[in-house]
Design a protein that fits this description.
Length: about 475
């Protein structure tokens, strides 16, 4: 039996060079965070881009970089600045990302982006061919690499290939606006198994395959030449134990061991014991509904002024894709909104919004999760949303209220949360009030269900289920071909 090879745009470590030495820095982001435990638990290989362009890589350090990566079970697909511009910032993040998140008006259909996307996908496919054997299992991740499965299939007709999409697959009506829609579908259909977070994304994909390619689709099987491609949903879990253990450790820390952030949070609690903390954590991305959330918070404070000085919104926005104009505009909009609301509503003792625009170390994330009475996550579209799951996992005493957008994939599995429509300010204001007044017994009852489910369906189980389905599919597929 061969090895398992994971392929994603970014490797689970980023390399940075300072004064001739190489530092490996863990990546932030759902995929990196989720798959890390799977990869480190096997002797498999992870192929992806290191984060350094050719131009940023001193030739004399190239060997050391490859060595450092190999020590981490990784192999680099070398990309230059122009390729990153067209493939990553271009087609991936200015065409596919907005389109698949229903921001049609942000989607740019540039032929140059598309050509670079194809060329870079070919580079990834070539790296796979070079570093794998026929009996290896290939697991390709996400929207940056949708052409890779078919590119590998052409050279390795019998290799087992799985693909998982971490973002939503949009409805046919949205997807069909993409000029290269058939090529994207054909690229994905090089896989044996295609996985999505939810049943809805799966249906949308099947509908596009049927209507755009005219292929036979029966239930969740697609018939293409002499192959059957399976499509299924696999809602991604988190490393539940890691978050749980970190929260337990956190609660046992002595005063001296507390972080600066935790001290600030504790001081806040001590000075205003009846003020509740509401938390949001997202990459700074328009799909996450950050600006709307701030507006909804203002709406809440106006509708229920008795909560002024009684609540504080702690907003962590992690810098992301800051080369893309849309993200720069959003950053400006959020800065202005936070400034205006804090300027208008603050009192001597109270600032309504604490806003952090940075990436925080993992321990600080735990400080925030464990100190907040409410997590309020309002994506306008989100493939899954792992932050919602992480918040619940860290609530060791089972208190805390999760308010979650219906538009997040995770909402399908987290019915015990308070689900809201992020466009409905009235509903959100009332839900915030409900959350602030929810009896502790009710919080515990809701979170018990959620925690049990998250513990059971953790990220390792998610990966195992996908791999099991991929293996099963291959066994059935081979017998189909040989009949
Ligand atoms: C994509 C899809 C899907 C965040 N800030 C910090 C930090 N994080 C970590 C969180 C969490 C991850 O990043 C974010 O995951 P999400 O799922 O919320 O969102 P995306 O980055 O958009 O991920 C998403 C996911 O892929 C998986 O399929 O759920 O829908 O868009 O794990 O903890 N970690 C640290 N510091 C931070 O400041 N250390």
């Amino acid at each position: 039996m061969g090895k398992t090879i994971i392929i994603s745009n970014r490797l689970p470590v980023q390399l940075q060079i300072s004064n001739g030495t190489i530092n490996a820095i863990p990546s932030v982001g759902g995929l990196a965070t989720g798959m890390k435990s799977v990869h480190s638990g096997s002797d498999g290989l992870w192929i992806g881009w290191s984060g350094l362009t050719d131009e940023e890589t001193p030739p004399e350090l190239e060997k050391d970089i490859d060595k450092a990566l190999a020590e981490n079970g990784c192999a680099n697909v070398k990309l230059n600045a122009e390729e990153i511009e067209g493939f990553y910032f271009g087609f991936s993040n200015r065409t596919v990302w907005p389109l698949f998140h229903y921001f049609l008006e942000y989607s740019e259909f540039e032929l140059d982006f598309w050509n670079t996307y194809k060329a870079v996908n070919q580079k990834f496919a070539d790296a796979i061919i070079e570093q794998s054997d026929e009996d290896d299992t290939i697991w390709v991740h996400d929207y940056q690499l949708m052409l890779v499965p078919q590119m590998v299939r052409e050279k390795r007709p019998n290799t087992t290939i799985g693909f998982f999409l971490h973002i939503p697959f949009p409805s046919y009506e949205i997807f069909r606006t993409l000029p290269w829609r058939e090529e994207i579908l054909e690229g994905l259909l090089g896989s044996d198994l295609i996985g999505f977070h939810t049943y809805d994304y799966e249906r949308h994909f099947l509908s596009s395959v049927r209507r755009l390619l005219g292929l036979d689709v029966s239930f969740n099987d697609i018939y293409l030449d002499n192959r059957v491609i399976k499509v299924d949903s696999f809602p991604m879990g988190i490393d539940y134990k890691k978050f749980r253990d970190a929260a337990i450790l956190h609660s046992s820390k002595s005063e001296d061991e507390r972080s600066d952030l935790q001290m600030r949070l504790d001081n806040h609690k001590a000075s205003a014991p009846d003020t509740k903390l509401i938390l949001s954590i997202d990459r700074l991305d328009y799909s996450k509904g950050i600006a709307k959330r701030i507006n909804a918070f203002e709406y809440f404070l106006n509708k229920y002024p008795e909560y002024r000085e009684k609540v504080r919104l702690i907003m962590l926005a992690v810098p992301s894709r800051s080369n893309v104009p849309q993200y720069q505009l959003l950053k400006k909009e959020i800065d202005e909104l936070v400034g205006r609301i804090n300027g208008e509503l603050s009192t001597v003792n109270w600032t309504p919004i604490w806003y952090f625009y940075r990436s925080l170390p993992f321990d600080n994330l735990i400080d925030l999760y464990t100190s907040s009475d409410i997590a309020w996550l309002t994506p306008l579209r989100d493939g899954m949303n792992l932050v919602a799951k992480e918040y619940i996992a860290t609530r060791t005493d089972k208190t805390g209220v999760l308010i979650l957008s219906e538009m997040a994939g995770s909402a399908y599995e987290m019915n015990e949360a308070l689900l809201i429509n992020p466009n409905n300010f009235e509903e959100q204001a009332d839900t915030l009030k409900k959350a602030l007044n929810m009896p502790v017994e009710e919080q515990i009852a809701r979170n018990e269900f959620l925690q049990n489910r998250l513990e059971r369906y953790n990220v390792e189980v998610w990966a195992k289920e996908f791999m099991r389905a991929l293996k099963e599919k291959k066994d059935v597929g081979s017998s189909f071909i040989s009949q």
